[in-house]
C-alpha cells in the first residue's frame, strides 16, 4: 500500500490532516522550514547550557523543584528521570487512534521551533508513528495543566526503550519493538524531556476525535428526525425559512434548511389541521435544538483547530529574539471549556431523540401499532428499545457536569489551578458513544414505523431508510435487537450514513 506524505511545520495542520493520520492513510515528515526553526531553537538551548544560565527545566528541576539548580553534567539524567517519574498513569489504556493523534500533535507542536528539541528526537517519534508502533498509555492521571504530563510521559517512554507498545496487534516491551524495527533508542539532552511531555496533546487528540464523530451525529440527528417526521405525519411548516431567518440564529437556519432538503419530495408529511394543528416540541423545535448544537460544534471546532497548531510547553524559546519565556501555555482551560460545551451539545441531540422515540412507540401519541409490532402482547416489538435510549440519555446527564469547574492544587501548591481538561475530553468520548446509540434506537424505530404507511419518502430520508435495510430487516417478530442497535450506531459513527445521504442530495447542503 502506497502512502502519501504529510509535511508538518507546526502552522498548517488541519482537522482533515489529523483524521488522515490517525486512520493511517498518510505518513508524516517534518517540513524543511520546521527543521530550520528547530535547529535555531536548539542552538539557543545549547548556548544556555554552556553559559550555565538558570532556566526552568533546562538547568533546574521541575514544578516545586524549579528553584533547585541542576549541574550541567546531570542534564541528560534529569530529562530521563522526568520521563520515568511522570509515567505513572492508571486505568484503561487509550485506543490507538487517540495515541496516534497524540504523537502527531506533539510532533507538530515541537515543529514550531519554540521548544529547543533536536530534530532527531522528533523524527524518532515520527518513525514510531509511521511504523504503527503505538505506546501503551493509561487514560487517567492528567490534571490538564502543566499539560497532560502522565499520559505524555507514557508516550515518550518507549522512545527511550522503556515501557510498552502495541505493534502489529501485539502488546510488547518497547525495547523489543525498537530492536525489531531497527529504531535506535533515544538519549535525551537538555530541555527535551520537559518539552516532550509539557503539552495538551491527549485532551486535544480526544476532543479532535470527538469533533470528527460529532459532525456525523449532527447529520444523523437531522436525518433520523426527518424519518420520524414522516412516520408521524409531521408538519413541515415549522421549517419554513422565513420563520428561522426571523430569529437569525446561524445553526438554526442551517438545521432547518437541512431538514427541508432531507424531506424534499416527501408525500408522508402533512399540512396544519390535516392531523393536528401543530406538532409537539420534539418535532416542531428540531431546528432550534439541533441548530444550537451545531453552533456549539462550530465554536469547539475553532478552538481545537487552533490548538492543533499551538505551542503548549514551557518555557518557550524565541531564537530570533534570544528570549526564553516561562508562562502557562500548557494550561488546558480552552480545551476543557470546549470539551464540556460539546458534551452538553451532543447530549442534547440524544435527549430530544429519545423523546421522538417515545412518540414513535407510544400508540397514544403516534397512531401506530403499539411498540411498532402487529402482534402486540405476544410480541413486545421495540418496547424495550425506548428503555435503552432513556437509560443512555440519563447516563449522559450525569456526565454533563462540567469537569472544567473543578480544580485541585498540586506540586506543593506551585500549580494551584488546573483545568481538568483531560477528564472533560474523556467523558465527552463516552457521551458521543451514548448519543450515537440513542440516535441508532430512533433510526431503528423510525424505519420500522415507516413500514406501516405508504407514500413517497423524502430525498434524504429514503436513502437513510434504504441504507439501514441493507443490514437490518423489518421487525416481523421479536428478536434480539442488540446487534441491530450496534449496526445502526456504526452507520452513524463511521460517517456512512452522512456520506450516503449527502450523496443523495447531490451536494446541495454545505
UniProtKB/TrEMBL annotation:
Example GO molecular function: histidine ammonia-lyase activity
Annotated crosslink 5-imidazolinone (Ala-Gly) location: 145-147
Residues modified as 2,3-didehydroalanine (Ser): 146
Pathway: Amino-acid degradation; L-histidine degradation into L-glutamate; N-formimidoyl-L-glutamate from L-histidine: step 1/3
EC number in record: 4.3.1.3
CDD domains in UniProt: PAL-HAL
Subcellular localization: Cytoplasm
Chief place of localization: cytoplasm
Cellular component GO terms, alphabetical: cytoplasm
An example Gene Ontology biological process: L-histidine catabolic process to glutamate and formate
Catalytic activities: L-histidine = trans-urocanate + NH4(+)
Signal peptide: none
Keyword line: Cytoplasm, Histidine metabolism, Lyase
Post-translational modification, as annotated: Contains an active site 4-methylidene-imidazol-5-one (MIO), which is formed autocatalytically by cyclization and dehydration of residues Ala-Ser-Gly.
Keyword Lyase recorded: yes
Family, similarity comment: Belongs to the PAL/histidase family.
HAMAP family xrefs: His_ammonia_lyase
PANTHER family: HISTIDINE AMMONIA-LYASE
Designated name of the protein: Histidine ammonia-lyase
Organism: Melghirimyces profundicolus
Designated gene of the protein: hutH
